[in-house]
Amino acid sequence: MAHPLQSLSFQSLFDAVADAMLLITDTGIITEANAAALSLLGYTAKEIAGLKVEVLVPERYRAQHLKHRTKFIRNPEKRPMGSGNELSVLTKDGKELEVDIGLSPISYQEKSYTLVTFYTVAKRKSVEQALRISEESLRLAKKAAGLVAFDFDADLKMRDTNEQLLAYWGAEQANIEQKSEKIDIVAVPIIHPEDSAIRASAIRHATDPGGNGELKVEYRIINPVTGDLRWVSATGRAHFRDGHATRLLGVVRDITEQKILEKKLQDQHAETETLFAKEVATQTASAIAHEINQPLTAISAYSEVALHALKQKVIDSVSLKRALEGCVAQAQRAGSSLHELLSFLHKGEMTREQLDVNNVVKEALVIAKSYGYSDFHPVLELESNIKPVLGNKTQVLKILVNLLRNAVEAMREAEIASSEISITVRTNANINMAHVSVQDVGPGLNYEVAKHIFEPFFTTKPKGIGMGLAISRSLAEANGGQLWLDPDAKLGATFHFTLPFAP
Ligand code: ADP
Question: Where in this chain does the record put each PAC domain (predicted)?
């Protein structure tokens, strides 16, 4: 029995091959092209036969191709063409297709031919494979991050029905995906009434050709069936062509848990602030009570004596006078105590005296240590014979002690062993003021924290109150100076404050 292949013609085999193939002579003339080659290159069998193979080579490679072909004819061997370079073939209508090319020399009736094979399918397959892998890893990454992608076209309709996004919107239960028309980004999800304007405006801005195309918005979605509220964060980017938004792509993420946590923190913070405000009010009230309690008691006692005398109708004008004088004195004492207290609380009305800053620094070190901030090593650089400054000693001490306390706490928190605090006192000739710097070797402050440290109640410490620096700055200002954080400090944190010299 004859082998079945023997009954097949070369042409029918040639045509049956899935890859595009050409047979060319050693002078580079195309003699045969199989069906796949004709379909790939867009020629008919008649048109292609007799053409120089260089017709299929993009013009910029032709001269080079000719050289390589001549070399190949001299030393024909079965090998891929282009040794790993990207190759392209020119179709009849001038399109360039990326291909891998295999060359096989064939001898027939003492003539040599080359069989040229274009591998496009393999290439496409490998690209598809790579794409599949990359899509898969993207899908996994999105899943891990809890992200759902969205893709909307120019009129803000979903490009392809995205089940995940619909589920996100709660549309699944409401059977919205059953509708045949394209799904609308604006109309479908039920947005919380307080957030719908924000979301609409964010989408409008993102798709405005005058803007930067960025979408970033947080809003609440109401589940149409259960009525549940979920917080969603959408991040995306619009693409524009000819001054029009053509597409809006991005991801949404459920941030409900995060929002709940944020709210809890805010509530806690508010509660702490209220507690603190109450504490301040209580302390102020007790201070006032403390100041006027004694005089009031005394006034009451004097008044009783006077009343008693009046009741007894034995008017002893001397003791009455003494009682009334006592009342006046005590009332005045109460008044002046209150005045002192208020002038301590209010800036501007305090007493100022000539101070030796070097001495005040030394005293502040003693006070800080007595408050339990003794685990540091002070490095003093004092300007001897610095001119005396004019200031309120208690307040200047308060500034220094606050700065020392912060420095020690920062270094303790960071568990820094060699807790060194350098304190420098010098004359700042530019502004003609005494200039005090307090530098620690702690972790310093990052930009975000540094922006807020002088705000009342700003603290990064679990038990902090966040008033130290706010008070210190207003004390420095009340004394005619300034207090600031060195933005360029190389090491740790450096705070500076100034005080005016006595005239
Ligand atoms: P509190 O000490 O009560 O938190 P402060 O007003 O004294 O309030 O300080 C506010 C914040 O500034 C601190 O919580 C801390 O984050 C930061 N800070 C202040 N001094 C330093 C420092 N020397 N090093 C690092 N951070 C500091």
Answer: 215-267
For 40, 223, 235, the CA distances from 136, given in Å and listed in that order, are 31, 29, 21
- Both tokens of 467, joined, read 């008033």
Q: Does 457 contact ligand 1 (Cβ within 6 A)?
A: no
Q: Would you say how long the chain is, in residues?
A: 503
Atom 20, ligand 1: residue with shortest CA distance: 406
- Whether the CB of 408 sits within 6 Å of ligand 1: no
Question: What are the Cα distances from residue 18, in Å, to 13, 24, 46, 81?
Answer: 10, 19, 20, 19
Element (H, E) at 31: strand 30-33
Q: Are the beta carbons of 443 and 457 closer than 8 angstroms?
A: no
Is 466's C-beta closer than 6 angstroms to any atom of ligand 1? yes
Query: Which residues of the chain are modeled with pLDDT < 50?
Result: 173-180, 347-348
Pick the CATH number of 353-500 from 3.40.30.10, 3.40.50.2300, 3.30.420.40, 3.30.565.10: 3.30.565.10
Q: Which of 469, 471, 473, 495, when mutated, tests ligand 1's pocket best, judged by the most ligand atoms within 8 Å of its CB?
A: 469
CATH of 4-125, picked from 3.30.470.20, 3.30.450.20, 2.60.40.10, 3.40.50.150, is 3.30.450.20
Q: What is the dihedral of CA 199, 204, 205, 210, to 10 degrees?
A: 180
**Which CATH architecture describes the domain 146-254?**
2-Layer Sandwich (3.30)
Q: Which of 354, 357, 433, 435 is nearest to 397 (CA)?
A: 357
Tell which atom from ligand 1 comes closest to the C-alpha of 440.
23
Nearest CA to ligand 1 atom 26: 445
**Do the domains 259-345 and 353-500 sit in the same CATH topology, yes or no?**
no
Quote the ligand 1 centre to 454 CA distance (angstroms). Answer: 9
Whether 406 lines ligand 1, by a CB cut-off of 6 Å, is yes
Could you say which architecture CATH assigns to the domain 259-345? Orthogonal Bundle (1.10)
The structural domains of the chain, with segments of one domain joined by +, span 4-125, 146-254, 259-345, 353-500
Ligand 1 centroid to 417 CA: how many Å? 19
**Model pLDDT, residue 281:** 67
Give, as one character, the DSSP assignment of residue 201: H
DSSP structure string for 298-353: HHHHHHHHHHHHHHTT---HHHHHHHHHHHHHHHHHHHHHHHHHHHHHSTTSS--E
Q: Is residue 469 lining ligand 1, measured as CB closer than 6 Å?
A: yes
The atom of ligand 1 lying closest to the CA of 465 is 3
Give the number of the atom of ligand 1 that is nearest the alpha carbon of residue 471: 6
